[in-house]
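Exam prep: given the inputs below (a chain plus zinc ion), describe the expected output before reading on.
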Amino acid sequence: MTTITLTFDNGPDPDVTPMVLRTLRRHGTQATFFVIGEKLRDRRRLSEHARGEGHWIGNHTYTHLVPLGQSREGGVALREIEQTDTLLGDLAHPRQFFRPFGNGGNLGSGLLNREALRYLQASGHTCILWNAVPEDWVYPESWVERALDLCFANEHSLLVLHDLPTGAMTHLDTFLHRAKDRGATFVQEFPGDCIILESGRIVRDIQPYLSD
Ligand SMILES: [Zn+2]
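Solution:
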């Protein structure tokens, strides 16, 4: 029996986010949208709409340019998280979800630096990683097969997709149908082993994700 949690990163996008919302509504499935602050600034309405439909909204940095652990300049990592927090305001889930930028889904030591970690702890964030990245942005026409393979290899998969204009999300409906046909259950809650901070408290070994 496989359980799948859906997340959509790097939006909101004026065309793709509404399409994803329509597909999720048809399937009665709730997800989390990890948004980029720079995009949220002028497109807050899209995220408000998502939250109104029961989806959770999380912080996915402000510019999404450099993994925070690779940032050497003081204050940069902090601003990347803080600016988006400010823009999110009451759109943020009470657990204050944050997902670091992994630059292609890499779960490595570049995800966070100490400055970012200190802020996330002090401000009570819940830091969410992932365990299934089908690279929908690289394979917009064939990611569904890859996603099914990845998801059914885990008991509980945390799937990373992107509400970006690559064409990939036109296949979201197919993915949901096929996963359900194979017996998958969709839940909004994240698998425990993908949570490294819960409301500011370190709940997993954080060292592998932290730069010096
Ligand atoms: Zn991203």
